[in-house]
Amino acid sequence: MQRFFWRFLLVIFSLGWQGAYAQAPATAMVQELPELRTIVDATGFDGSVLIYDLYNNAYMAGHAESVEQAFLPASTFKIFSALVALETGVIADKNTVITWDGVQRGRTETNRDLDLQSAFRLSAVPHFQQLVKSVGAQRMQGFIDAVGYGNRDISGGIDTFWLTGGLRLSPREQVDFLVRLYRNELPFSEQSMTAVKEMMVAEESDAYVLRAKTGWATLENQDNTGWWAGWVERDGNVYFFASLLHANAPAESFGPARQSVVRESLTHLGVLPPAPSL
């Protein structure tokens, strides 16, 4: 514990306390693209899609007026909590097993022991709740403040603040956080950041690598928030993205729509290849 404390202080002071709060990409206007707006509207849900072209420092959006609106990060917060769990030594590495708590839940694929990487890719909420509780509120708040993550509010329970509690994050903040992760500019060790980036790989081909995480929060009033956030590495450039959809008691199409708006937008921009014809 003492070793972690001094390591944490060293990271913070090496960055400079004010620097820890800095927003990553250079300030740039968000360009509204009518084609991306049409893609979002075609889902039938409210929301937005935001794309950031790293090397041209260009933000492009469908419904740019919404990209500063903040919502629960839901399971996209697993990116952050995995970083903290690794950095604090709560879990040794991505292959370390998190023991299942024995509670039978609807998603049967998560009703078992899972290593960190599998828990991340299956988005196993109970396993990550165990990790966050092991980190504890004080240490978690310290890292959230150091990063400047969203509104930095972890009220509502140490194991639920990102699902139903007080934490809020906008698509713009989500993208900017991911840019800092890609650049290794967060107050975590390079080892922790590399491990999480490896866990984020969702697709890999000769042409590109796609790293991402989904998120879905449902509140008691059936207000649903759905995310897909990550980036694509292609042709020497990096394209960051965040889709944010919200609806009240949505139909089954809500889940797939989180990803489809991003895929269609990136295809339109020439970043991803068209989906194969059926």
Write the layout of secondary structure elements.
Layout: H1 2-15, H2 17-20, E1 30-32, H3 34-41, E2 46-53, E3 58-62, H4 77-88, E4 97-98, E5 114-115, H5 116-121, H6 125-135, H7 137-147, H8 171-182, H9 190-199, E6 201-204, E7 208-218, E8 223-234, E9 237-248, H10 254-268
Describe the protein in words.
This protein is an alpha+beta fold. The chain has a single domain (16-268), classed as DD-peptidase/beta-lactamase superfamily (Beta-lactamase, 3-Layer(aba) Sandwich). Helix content is 37%, strand content 21%. The protein has helices at residues 2-15, 17-20, 34-41, 77-88, 116-121, 125-135, 137-147, 171-182, 190-199, 254-268, and strands at 30-32, 46-53, 58-62, 97-98, 114-115, 201-204, 208-218, 223-234, 237-248. It has a 7-stranded mixed β-sheet, with helices on both faces. The chain has a two-stranded antiparallel sheet with strand order 4-5. A hairpin with a 3-residue loop joins strand 6 (201-204) and strand 7 (208-218). The longest helix has 15 residues, at 254-268. The radius of gyration is 18 Å and the shape is globular. Mean pLDDT is 91; it is low at 1-24.
